[in-house]
Each structure stands twice: as structure tokens, then as C-alpha cells.
Amino acid sequence: MKNLILLGAGASHGSQLENSPPLGVGLFKEIEKKREELSIIPRSIKEIFYEDFEKGMVALYDFSPKLAQVLQLAMAGYLAGFIPNRKNLYLKLLSNVKLRKTIFCTLNYDLLIEESGVALGKTVGYFSNSKEQVKIIKPHGSSNFWPNTFGTTFVNCSIHSNSRDGVDFKGPVEAVSSYESISRSKSNSGLCPAMAFYAPGKSVKWCRDYVHQHQKDWEKTALKAKKIFISGVQINKLDTHIWDVVASTRADVYFYGDKNAKASFDEWKREVGKDNLYYLEGWFDFAVADIARKIKG
């Protein structure tokens, strides 16, 4: 493996012009429209979500861990519902890179890259050692990573800890289809998928060990890579499990972002003190074309 592609919310949002996942600032409003049970969230907390989703999640968990779990479920079902159209840029990316030599790491909970692989007739698997054609690592978990209960049925359960850093549920995980994930998110089982809270620190409360396996695989893969391409990701130094790893790698790192992202990139580059970190201005469409050129070249 020579190439690692790290994708964030901006990539999925920019992957197609219509029906794409909203960015964080607009995410809560869209989920709120879909799930009536979120109407009981106090207006004061909703206002925080409208300004900053991560701060809103902290406020909501402090107010009611149970409501935070309801939102986590709603978010999983909502994000699992996005499917790639014929012009989706993930289709173009997967069609134009050498899959044998490329690992994809996405920080997103949605399934657009997985569904794009399936649409192209490719096999899709998780972890860098997967034998499938499209290999994906998800360090923040995914809307389709559900607890594997081996046939045990949960009904009207309330499973949550009172600490944001506590673990609610331990156990193995099964990766299910988008349809099945949507169905489970609407059930009354009380179970949640293995997804990090969209909040500072990205704590994982469901099947934490499985998500930590993805994080370890991300680190191992990044440290072995010759080239790392980053698109749709904001530099957030609080997410040390991502940015400390990038800073430690010997790989050439290509960071794609709009002009507003350059100042934070330059500051981070000065702190890291490495010369082989490159900023390239452009949206996801530019990144896809440029990555394909660099990998093929």
C-alpha cells in the first residue's frame, strides 16, 4: 500500500450537487425535520446546535444522556439514507485510482463511499487488510456499524451511562446495509450504532473497542503510507488521534481546502515543522482529479 486518502464531511457534502449530507452547521436542522422525538430538546440547546453542532452535543448530553442517544440514533438513520447519484465524485475517485495500492479512510458516518463502490461493481471491506477491492477505515465509526446481538431481541431498552466518557455497551459489531441501518435506527430496541459522538474528543460509547480497532488501523496505515491525501477535513488539533498521526508520518501529505483553510494549515505546518506538507486550494472536485493524477503518475 502506497496511498492513503483521508476524507471528511466536506468530501461527502461536495460529492454531488443534490441530496448530499449537510455540513455540521446545518446538520441538526435537517435531522430535526425528520424526527419528531427531537422536538422535546429545549430551545436553548437547539440554538447552540444551530451555531455549533459539537457544542450542542455537549450541552445536550449534560442535559439528558437519553436525549443525546435519541439524537445519535436519528443521525445514524438520516446519514445512512444518502445514496450516490450518477455524477457522484466518489464514483469518479474509485474509478480513477489504483485500488490495489490505495486505502480510504473516512471520518464520515455516511455510506456514500461504500455505496459508490457497490454501484461500480466493486467489493467493499473494512480495515486495511481486507481482501475486498475497496478498503475503508472509519476511525469515528459509521451509521452501519451495529452491535451484533446474535439473534437476541432488545425491546424498549434504555442503555446509557451518565458520563460523556463512559461506555454504554460493549460487544462485537456487524456492518449492515444502509436499508437495515435506517430500519434499526427507527426501532425501539434501545441499541445504537458504533459512532463517535460528534463532539470534542469524539468519544465512543457503543462498541468502543471496535472503533478503536479502526483508529489503530488508521495510525498503522498512515505511518506506512508514501502519500496521504486529505480532502474535506478541517484541521482540529483537539482530534489528536488524527492530526498527531498525520504529523508523525514520513509520507508526503497533500491537503486540499478552500482559501479560508490556508491560515490554519500554515499554522499547523509551522508547528509540525515538516517540509513535505502541501496545501492545494480547491474543492472536492479538484481534489479528486488531482489525486487521480498524482496516484497514476
Strand order of the largest sheet: 3-4-2-1-7-8-9
Kindly report the average pLDDT value. Answer: 90
Compute the number of strand runs. 9
Order of helices and strands: EHHHHHHEHEEEEHHEHEHEH
Helicity range of the residues? 40-55%
The CATH architecture assignment of the largest domain turns out to be 3-Layer(aba) Sandwich
The CATH H-level superfamily of the largest domain is TPP-binding domain
CATH fold label of the largest domain:
Rossmann fold
CATH class of the largest domain: Alpha Beta
Quickly count the domains: 2
- Give the CA-CA distance, first to last residue: 15 Å
Overall geometry: globular
Largest sheet: 7 strands, parallel
Please identify the structural class as seen in this structure.
alpha/beta
Count the helices. How many?
A: 12
Strand portion: 5-15%
- Low-pLDDT windows of residues: none
Rg of Cα set = 19 Å
Description:
It is a single chain. This protein has helices at 9-14, 24-34, 43-51, 53-63, 65-80, 89-96, 112-119, 178-185, 208-224, 240-248, 262-272, 284-296, and strands at 3-7, 102-106, 124-126, 134-137, 145-147, 173-175, 227-231, 252-257, 277-281. It is of the alpha/beta class. The protein has 2 domains: 3-16 and 85-142 and 211-296, Rossmann fold, CATH 3.40.50.1220; 24-82 and 147-203, no CATH class. The chain has a 7-stranded parallel β-sheet, sandwiched between helices. A two-stranded antiparallel sheet has the order 5-6. Helix 10 links the parallel strand 7 (227-231) and strand 8. The longest helix is centred in the C-terminal third of the chain and has 17 residues, at 208-224.
